[in-house]
Amino acid sequence: AAKNAGRNGYRFYEAAMNARIADQLALEMDLREALENNALHLHFQPQFTLNEARLVGAEVLLRWNHPVHGPISPARFIPVAEETGLILPLGAWVLRQACQQWRIWHEAGLNPPPLAVNLSAAQFQASGLPEEVAAVLAETGMPATSLELELTETIVAEDAERAETTMHRLADLGIHLSIDDFGTGYSSLAYLRRFPLHKLKIDQSFVRELANAGGSDVIVIAIIQLGKALGLTVIAEGVETPAQRDFLHQQGCDEVQGYLFGRPIPADQFTALLGTPAPAPAANRLSS
Ligand code: C2E
Ligand code: MG
Ligand code: MG
Ligand code: MG
Asked: What is the pLDDT of residue 9?
């Protein structure tokens, strides 16, 4: 009987595996189709300075509204794109689309802030990334200084020597580089110092835990101190509450991004944020 149960368990496991693989395959085919049919779009999430509540940037986030399943999170479909190599054309599309949007705002006289685009490991490690980025900038007329590329610690840790070369070639173009989800990977502090970085993004898992018992206050403080010591801008992501904002402000964090200040929104809605005063929350702190 035990043997039978084991075998059934195995069959069940195998069936579940096959179902998962079939799901992934279907998702990948649909994603490929979405990319070809322009069924993907970008959202933009504002970033503000904590001191003056000035709009200083926007993170570009990919969105996919599946015709049958509805909106699918990039946390779900980006890994699929990464496994299948689709991330290369997908990532190239995001970059071009973001630069074109920046240009549209610029042409309209709206003074858009720099845009931060997420890069996957495969994109960063593909030969010719700096040339590709330079070509898109030239084609769209977006200045390199208005583009920020978000890398993760894992990307950078895999082959630090090679990463350093690529980063220098990107930085030489005038592009800003940031480390996303900082604190969740394994950064060599020695390398952090050698890389031509501009910004550290404190991972939202630490921000979420702020002020909780046994929370991540000390980690957040340490990241802010480290960033400052290295001469980097430090931004916290996932800021949802005034208490989190106040703590970050007290600790000298430079910038914030999160639902408290603005959710990721489509380009036409983001246009309304351009050329307008920033929302009140952090600005009020100045007068208090
Ligand atoms: P990420 O780069 O760390 O982006 C931040 C994520 O946090 C976004 O999730 C954003 O919507 C979410 N977020 C922002 N503020 C808050 C907040 O206050 N509270 C909470 N709970 N969440 C907040 P999203 O848009 O679902 O993207 C998830 C991840 O997918 C991104 O994490 C990034 O790793 C990846 N991703 C998104 N777009 C792209 C892309 O174009 N290329 C690549 N390679 N990855 C992308
Ligand atoms: Mg990011
Ligand atoms: Mg992040
Ligand atoms: Mg993240």
From this structure: 72
